[in-house]
Amino acid sequence: MKNRITNIVLLILALAFFSCEKPAPTELVNIESTDLEIEVVPMEPGTYDYSNGYDTTGVTLAKQDYSSIVTISSVKTTSNNLTAKSTLARALFFDKTLPITTPNGKTICFRTRKIGSVYFENRLAREVDLSIRLLMNGAAKDSVIGKYHLLYRRNNKGDDFDFNFNSSIDVKLKLLGSTLAHFQIPTPNEITGAVKTTDNLVDEDNLFMLSWNGTGTGTVDIIIGGIKKAQRASPVSPYYKLSVQDNGSLTIPSYLLKNFPFEELDKIVFTFIRKKEVDTNQDNTLKDNFIAAYSIHNIQLDIP
Questions:
Q1: For residue 48, what are the β-bridge partners?
Q2: What is the predicted pLDDT for the residue at 102?
Q3: Do 98 and 110 form a contact (C-beta atoms < 8 A)?
Q4: 79 membership: H or E segment, kind and range
């Protein structure tokens, strides 16, 4: 059995660190899977606050080391038997000479730089503010750290941009009419998940039985998160990331969520993520890059 437990920082457009009791590593070593990877988000209370989420971007690993980030995602969010759909295309270009640091000197990201215009499927992406939120002396402070390029569509409203599954998205970076970079991002098959329980959500003996339309190849990521009480409009706070073979099923034993902060949350959220990444390191303009496409299905369950 090959289980690996690692601490990770969730950071992309913004950063999420939250206060919860981190499960001890000994609680995570008995899941019956030969290819399961578990990652636990570490505590660092009082430093960061949440301003954007993995549940729409699909990005769960720290990407502050990259100068360029280009991602597209198709997102479904199911709550109370209703499903909302959205598509998102983003391009971010960072200036590594301009770091953003915490009061203790830790670099968390960089200010952005402008290197041209971005087109997804020949549609010009809008330039919008990129903000992060830091907790300074117990008070939240929002800071705009530059611009990024965005196309966003939700429930058939918004930018004219569609995500075609098992296909590809054309991306161009232009400056003064000249093409600086041109590449394709392959898209994954759509993922559709389901969650069943054997008992009350907060019961110690409850099992979460997850299923999805497995492809039989590759892996999927499953993020277990929650929406805090009185913050229903806020993004989802992540607690666990599980990477498993794309075989269509996973049973989560009750002890894995022994220290999950049910009492602090209105909803528990299971996020199913299928992705495809692109390597374009041969392109000098985007030589230091992260490029990927995601299919995401969020399932929100009310906590009694």
A1: 134
A2: 72
A3: yes
A4: strand 68-79
Please give the residue range of the domain that contains residue 83: 4-302
- Looking at the DSSP bridge assignments, the partners of residue 251 are 209
The answer to whether the pTM exceeds 0.85 is: no
Per-residue model confidence (pLDDT) at position 233: 59
What one-character DSSP code corresponds to residue 234?
Answer: S
The domain tally of the chain equals 1
* CA-closest candidate to residue 108, choices 63, 149, 45, 141: 63
The amino acid sitting at 180 is L
Paired residues of 290 in beta bridges = 69
Predicted pLDDT at 53: 59
pLDDT, position 244? 92
CA torsion sign for 91, 97, 100, 101 is positive
Residue closest to 281 by CA, chosen among 291, 271, 273, 293: 291
Whether 43 and 22 have beta carbons less than 8 Å apart is answered as yes
Cα-Cα-Cα-Cα torsion 240, 242, 248, 254, nearest 10 degrees, comes to: -50
- Structure token digits, residue 13: 């457009």
| DSSP secondary structure, 127-185, as one string | EEEEEEEEEETTEEEEEEEEEEEEEEEETTEESS----TTSEEEEEEEETTEEEEEEEE
pLDDT along the chain (304 residues), means of 10: 33 29 30 49 42 57 73 93 93 89 77 92 94 66 86 91 95 87 94 89 78 95 85 70 92 80 88 89 71 94 88
CA distance 56 to 296: 7
